[in-house]
Amino acid sequence: MPTLPALPTPHARRLFLVHCGFIAAALLAPLRAQTPKLTPPAGAPAPAVAYEGLVAGESTLEEVKAKLGKPEHEASWYAWKLTYASKTRPGHFDAIHIQGERRVGDIEAATVPPGFETWAAVREKLGEPEWLLDLSRQSLADYSARGARFVFDSAGRTIGVASFPRGFPRVHAGERKHVSLRGLRQGPQPRPAAAPPQAAGAEPLLAGAAEAEITPRGPDWLGPVKFTVHDPLKVRAAVFAQGPLKVAFVGGDIFGMRKVDIDPIEARLREAGISHVLLALSHVHSAGDPIGIYGHYPEEYVKRIQDGVTEAATAALVALEPVSELRVASDELPLDGARVEGLFRNARNPGIVDPQVAAVQAIGDDSKPIVTIAHFACHPEGIEAPKGKPLEVSADFPGYLCDALRAATGAQAVFLNGALGGMVSGDTRARTHDEAEAMGKRLAKEVERVLGFAVPTERRLSFERSRLEIPVTNPRMIAFEMSTGQTSSYRGRHLTEMFHARLGEAELLSVPGELLPEVSFEILERMRGYPRMIVGLANDEIGYIIPAYDFRAGDYEESMSLGPAASLLVLRQALRFLER
Fold first, then answer.
1. What CATH superfamily is the domain 61-180?
2. Residues in contact with 431: Cβ distance below 8 Å, sequence separation at least 6, in sequence order
3. What is residue 30's predicted lDDT score, i.e. its pLDDT?
């Protein structure tokens, strides 16, 4: 009698089914994600505004074209995106995003509806907002229950209106109603007559920089995902050293990595003489999945990334040279059209975007730049492979940004992403390589502009870190860890960490995932550096870090989150750093 193959154990069968279920959920979730999808419930209040008679959540794609005619441009962006020239602000464009059901998901407009031209007029018509955000030179008033958010310039004039399906308040009555970043310095600052001298008794500040390629090689390196290489993936390292403190700030064209795969990198670099590593993952979606969240853990690819980070950071350490001047700067880009037009938008909560671009540059004794660190917040997901075609591996806009900055300054550029959660994404016209390249080069010009008024700061370096334990309450994340065999949790809590660093006046605070900007604003409000930078996806990728008051059952970001406790614990640890 032939021998039958052994059946898998109940535990193995359970893990296999759990993993398959998680993969299916992860793959299907993005199909219904990324643009407001709500149909206003029965009894919902009237919309605060309508755009040319169109109402988010109700009007259809056909109605849009019948009322507005042919758009200036239309293309795939999540579902579908149309742009029209603003009717009240020449040179600006309005964007209409369509849901999968061919209904309007949201409208981000520079066109201002009659009667809403100022903050005073908006408040007179709609009353006090659910939530008010004061940036350095702009303000945002949130009326989520009425399906609208308004952006005002420093003179109180309306410069952007976001319309989305109404029905529910985003911020409940027990939460903070006002967050102010008015004290955050932006733009040109008073320039000292001379660069600040080295602090008495302080050891010299040194800096070095290097990069290494980490593009996947073998055709099976991404498992079942077939791919071609459009442009190379890299890790870019800046090592700063002062006395025994040697810190590697590394930016990588990496979708994500878990702390269990980053810890071995730091162990290797510690042996080489680097005391701390901050590895900031750009979260580029066209670079393959080193986490294994979509069903395949690419062991060879992960090893290549680990080797690449080690190579770049070690080379930067060898290249250390004295810093004669440390320069810092940041600026706040205008939120015309309830977004940074052509660059950043928020697909989950339209209008709620951190518009800061920041830079730190180290200058050598030869008066030439050693390295430039660029910082802002945006998902690099501006490339969509044609249906049925292989993944086109690309660094997206961060690669073009760093290449353009290096060409312009003659020095290595390192990109550190920010609080990109919820979904702070590109505002390009379409998801193509050409659009991603144009975005990267435009951002490089913004960083160059900011560097044009950078001011010298004290040459000093400090770094501290703290362990963080976050309860894992999302069954999908529990199932994922069970299926991998790589434990990163302890008694139901994910073990991760956060960092707080200073480079002169520049202040950096890291988070281990995709922080929503609402939480980042509460942290930035308490920071006192110039510039202030929250570095996302640093040394870990725990998914979305969502304010507990805005945690929504069944939404995409929640399905990719550890749970509502993450934001509370991240905020608490951030404030602990800042109270010291």
1. CAP (3.40.33.10)
2. 75, 76, 77, 381, 382, 383, 384
3. 43
